[in-house]
């Protein structure tokens, strides 16, 4: 079973040289710390940053450098800063190659709910709705089950939707899954996790073909 860092390390293997990538708040922000050596990836944030680096070491934070989740960040050589309208122009213009988001629920059809729980106050929906409406490649980083042990991979989302049929792949502490026209397909299992463990933790019926390899996060 993976921790949050392990999930981020596995998603980092989906990066490709030259990609422009948007990272949602939560687990996705950790991906910037694990870019494969020698690979050039530009991370973009809705508040107007292109060229984010890994998180700063303790004591080296600059309060003027933050991402959309108000976390302090570092920037790489050549980074640029701009207003939010330009930032969302990049997103809506489909100039982001990969979007990595957190989620509270994902359906077997690729619907995502990640912005509101009814009855709880939220500061706003952020940029997620623009991202899911515009991005061609969306990977979700999330925990497989909630605090009650109930699956967050559902036949139908119960929470207000952020986007419909937009998620391509999901990485959890248990597994890597792909949304296909025929349903949710199990691609990989986390170290020490069996296929049976994943089936028990998942509400939807998974497509399982052949032996499911253990994911590599090294």
TrEMBL record:
GO terms for molecular function: succinyl-CoA:3-oxo-acid CoA-transferase activity. Its EC number is 2.8.3.5. It is an enzyme of class 2 (transferase). Pfam families: CoA_trans. Keywords: Transferase. Gene3D superfamilies: Glutaconate Coenzyme A-transferase (3.40.1080.10). Belongs to the 3-oxoacid CoA-transferase subunit B family. This is Probable succinyl-CoA:3-ketoacid-coenzyme A transferase subunit B. The gene is scoB.
């Amino acid at each position: 079973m993976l921790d949050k860092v392990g999930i981020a390390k596995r998603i980092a293997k989906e990066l490709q040289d030259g990609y422009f990538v948007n990272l949602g708040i939560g687990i996705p922000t950790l991906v910037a710390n694990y870019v494969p050596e020698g690979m050039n990836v530009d991370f973009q944030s809705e508040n107007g940053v292109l060229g984010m680096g890994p998180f700063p070491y303790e004591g080296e934070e600059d309060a003027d450098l933050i991402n959309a989740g108000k976390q302090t960040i570092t920037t790489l050589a050549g980074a640029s800063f701009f207003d939010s309208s330009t930032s969302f122009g990049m997103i809506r213009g489909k100039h982001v190659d990969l979007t990595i988001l957190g989620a509270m629920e994902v359906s077997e059809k690729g619907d995502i709910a990640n912005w509101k729980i009814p009855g709880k106050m939220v500061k706003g929906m952020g940029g997620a709705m623009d991202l899911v409406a515009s991005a061609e490649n969306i990977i979700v980083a999330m925990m497989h089950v909630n605090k009650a042990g109930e699956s967050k991979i559902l036949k139908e989302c119960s929470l207000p939707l952020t986007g419909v049929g937009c998620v391509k792949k999901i990485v959890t502490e248990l597994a890597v899954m792909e949304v296909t026209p025929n349903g949710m397909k199990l691609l990989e299992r986390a170290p020490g996790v069996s296929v049976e463990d994943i089936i028990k933790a998942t509400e939807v019926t998974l497509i399982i073909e052949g032996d499911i390899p253990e994911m590599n996060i090294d």
